[in-house]
């Protein structure tokens, strides 16, 4: 709906997967560990337009800002809200990821954003074990291929060769499933050849979470962020499709 997508929300919702959440999200129940969303601006702690911290709408997690991320109620497509990070020194961090899916645990992360530039790699999120530039779970866009990738912290990422992030809103979704299988989707599409990988995952999760940069501040992302979801446990095909359809309509149906 033009003029603000917040009408998609019912009442309530904070602190857990409550009845006030949108229909595609509420069925996740306790599996929805954390959800940061610009559709709930009261969760963004600000000084003017500058965001100093971002509380999760679901769960009890707080991302602390680095640099000066900026919130605008009409920062995306002229009338959708977003939090902008500049690709230079803006980021968010969180010291603990207790409760997040780690190691070989099934789970997924979704990241809904708009890329401001395609000139370099854009790092969306990393959490778990810090091992140089790698993390237990991470989601990013590669410099050379400009394709979305997901890493399990080992020696390989899961490449989505045909899944291009452009300057429109993109929905990145990395899933980790049984038998150490990971899949990467962009806007609901999976690369049938390279979008699925198998391998062993790290088993520790002591180094927290970073959004918008790597551990070690080696690479940043120039992004306008709408939503971040961390989901514990397996996500069914129907759930994934419902989530992707929901966010696609929420942000794309109002594009001019």
Tags for this entry?
disordered N terminus, nine-stranded antiparallel sheet, 18 strands
- Cα-atom Rg, whole angstroms? 16 Å
Structural class: mainly beta
Helix content: under 10%
Q: Mean pLDDT score, rounded?
A: 73
Please provide the count of β strands: 18
- Main β-sheet description: 9 strands, antiparallel
What is the overall number of helices? 1
Task: Provide a descriptive summary of the structure in words.
The protein is mostly beta strands and 256 residues long. The strands form two sheets. Strands 1, 5, 6, 8, 13, 14, 15, 16 and 18 form a nine-stranded antiparallel beta sheet that branches. The chain has a nine-stranded antiparallel beta sheet with strand order 2-3-4-7-17-9-10-11-12, with no helix packed on it. The N terminus is likely disordered. It is 6% helix and 39% strand. The chain starts with 31 loop residues before the first strand and ends with a helix. It is built from one helix and 18 strands.
């Amino acid at each position: 709906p033009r003029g603000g997508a917040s009408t998609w929300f019912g009442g309530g919702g904070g602190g857990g997967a409550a009845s006030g959440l949108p229909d595609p999200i509420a069925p996740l129940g306790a599996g929805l560990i954390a959800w940061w969303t610009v559709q709930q601006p009261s969760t963004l702690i600000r000084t003017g337009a500058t965001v100093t911290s971002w509380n999760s709408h679901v769960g009890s997690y707080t991302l602390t800002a680095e640099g000066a991320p900026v919130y605008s109620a009409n920062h995306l497509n002229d009338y959708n809200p977003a939090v902008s990070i500049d690709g230079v020194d803006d980021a968010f961090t969180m010291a603990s990821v207790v409760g997040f899916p780690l190691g070989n645990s099934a789970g997924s992360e979704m990241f809904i954003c708009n890329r401001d530039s395609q000139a370099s790699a854009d790092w969306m999120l990393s959490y778990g074990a810090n091992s140089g530039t790698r993390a237990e779970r991470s989601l990013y866009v590669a410099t050379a291929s400009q394709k979305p990738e997901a890493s399990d912290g080992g020696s390989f990422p899961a490449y989505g060769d045909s899944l291009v992030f452009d300057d429109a809103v993109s929905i990145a979704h990395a899933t980790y499933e049984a038998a150490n299988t990971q899949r990467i989707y962009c806007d609901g599409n999976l690369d049938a050849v390279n979008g699925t990988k198998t391998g062993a995952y790290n088993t520790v999760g002591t180094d927290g979470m970073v959004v918008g940069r790597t551990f070690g501040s080696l690479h940043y992302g120039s992004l306008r962020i709408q939503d971040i979801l961390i989901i514990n446990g397996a996500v069914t095909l129907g759930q994934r499709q419902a989530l992707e359809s929901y966010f696609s309509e929420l942000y794309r149906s109002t594009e001019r």
